[in-house]
Design a protein that fits this description.
Blueprint: H1 12-34, H2 43-108, H3 114-119, H4 127-130, H5 139-194, H6 199-222, H7 230-240, H8 259-269, H9 278-281, E1 286-288, E2 299-302, E3 308-314, E4 317-320, E5 329-332, E6 338-343
C-alpha cells in the first residue's frame, strides 16, 4: 500500500530569500518603466563631436595621402626596374648568342675549346668561379664570358630589388586600404550624428558655416590683401581662384581638394613642385615660427602632428580647405593651433 507523506515544506530562510528576490525584480522593473529616456544631445554637442570626428578623419586622410603617394612612387620604381631587367635580358641573350657563334666557329675549325664547352654546359653561371685562371681561355673568350657573368649578376640584383619593392608595394596597399576605411568610418560616424538633428538644426549649422566663410572673406577684403610676387604670390592667386570649392578627402583638384591637396595644387600652378602631404610640406622650405614674419603665400601648419596646412593670406588670416562639409575659404589663423609657417 502506497504511503501518504505530506510534501516537504520550504524552510523559512528559503521563503525569505525568494520573497526578497521577487521584490527586487519588481523594483527593478518599476525603475526601468519609470526611467526617463536618455536625453538627445543638443545641437552644440553634436557639432562638437562632429568637429572632432572631422579632425580625426583629416589625420587619417593625411596618412592615406602618404600611403597613396608611396604606392605611386613604388609602382614607378618597379616599372623602371622591370624595364631595365627586360633590356638587360636582351643584352644577355645577345652576349650568349655571340658566344654560341664563337663556339660554332671553333667547331668548324677543329673542335670546341674545353673551357668554352664547360661554359656552354648546363651550369654556366659559376664557370669563372670554377676556372682556375682566365688563362684557360683565349682573351676574346674571357672578355665575352666576363661580360655575361657581370650581366647575370646585375640582372640578379635588379630582380631581387624588384621583388623587395613588390613586397613593399603590397604592404603599402594594405595600409592604404586601412586608412581609407578609417577615414570613411569617421565620416560615416559624423554623418550619423548629424542625422540626429532636426531639419531646423541642420539649417542653423549650415548658416553658421556660411557666416564663418563670409566673415573671413569680408576681413580679407577690408584688409586689402594682395597676393604679392614670385612663386608664393602665384600660388596664392591660384588658391584664391578655388574659393568655394568643396573639401573631399584625398582630392588634389581642380574641382575638389583636401588641405594639402589645395596647397600642392596651388604651388604646382606656380611651377613649383612640393610634397603631397602636410607633414612632408612642413619640411619643404624655411620654417617661420613668428606669425608676424609670415608673408602672403607661405604655407601655414596646424596641430601638433601637422595634419592640417593652408596658405597665409595676410592680416592673421589663412586660406585653406577646412574639412568635410566645408568649402575652400578664408579663416582666422587663431581658429586652429598654429605651429609654424614654411616659406617655399
Amino acid at each position: 500500500m502506497a504511503s501518504h507523506r505530506r510534501p516537504k515544506q520550504p524552510s523559512r530562510a528559503r521563503v525569505t530569500m525568494l520573497t526578497t528576490a521577487a521584490a527586487a525584480a519588481v523594483a527593478i522593473s518599476a525603475q526601468a518603466a519609470n526611467a526617463a529616456p536618455s536625453e538627445k544631445p543638443s545641437k552644440d554637442e553634436v557639432k562638437s563631436k562632429v568637429d572632432k570626428l572631422y579632425e580625426q578623419a583629416e589625420q587619417a586622410t593625411e596618412k592615406y595621402n602618404g600611403a597613396k603617394e608611396n604606392q605611386e612612387k613604388l609602382q614607378k620604381e618597379i616599372s623602371t626596374i622591370q624595364d631595365n631587367v627586360a633590356r638587360g635580358q636582351q643584352d644577355l641573350n645577345k652576349l650568349r648568342d655571340g658566344l654560341g657563334s664563337m663556339a660554332a666557329g671553333q667547331y668548324r675549325t677543329g673542335g670546341i675549346d674545353p673551357s668554352l664547352q664547360l661554359f656552354l654546359s648546363s651550369h654556366p653561371d659559376d664557370y669563372l668561379d670554377k676556372a682556375a685562371t682566365l688563362d684557360q681561355v683565349s682573351g676574346q673568350q674571357a672578355d665575352a664570358l666576363k661580360k655575361i657573368q657581370d650581366k647575370q649578376r646585375q640582372l640578379a640584383q635588379q630582380r631581387a630589388e624588384a621583388t623587395a619593392k613588390l613586397k613593399d608595394l603590397a604592404a603599402t596597399r594594405t595600409e592604404l586600404g586601412s586608412k581609407k576605411k578609417e577615414v570613411q568610418g569617421k565620416l560615416a560616424e559624423a554623418q550619423k550624428l548629424l542625422n540626429t538633428l532636426t531639419a531646423k538644426e541642420k539649417q542653423q549649422l549650415a548658416a553658421a558655416e556660411q557666416t564663418r566663410a563670409t566673415r573671413g572673406t569680408e576681413r580679407v577684403s577690408m584688409g586689402k590683401i594682395t597676393p604679392g610676387s614670385g612663386h608664393a604670390g602665384a600660388a596664392f592667386s591660384a588658391a584664391q581662384s578655388k574659393i568655394g570649392t568643396p573639401y573631399v578627402y584625398g582630392a588634389t583638384g581642380p574641382s575638389s581638394f583636401d588641405c594639402s591637396g589645395l596647397t600642392s595644387w596651388a604651388y604646382a600652378q606656380a611651377g613649383v613642385s612640393i610634397p603631397r602631404t602636410s607633414e612632408a610640406q612642413a619640411n619643404a622650405g624655411q620654417r617661420i615660427y613668428s606669425q608676424s614674419q609670415l608673408q602672403v603665400g607661405d604655407l601655414v601648419l596646424f596641430y601638433g602632428d601637422l595634419h592640417h596646412v593652408g596658405l597665409y593670406a595676410g592680416k592673421g588670416m589663412v586660406l585653406h580647405a577646412p574639412h568635410t562639409g566645408a568649402n575652400v575659404r578664408y579663416e582666422s589663423i587663431g581658429n586652429m593651433p598654429f605651429q609654424f609657417g614654411v616659406r617655399i
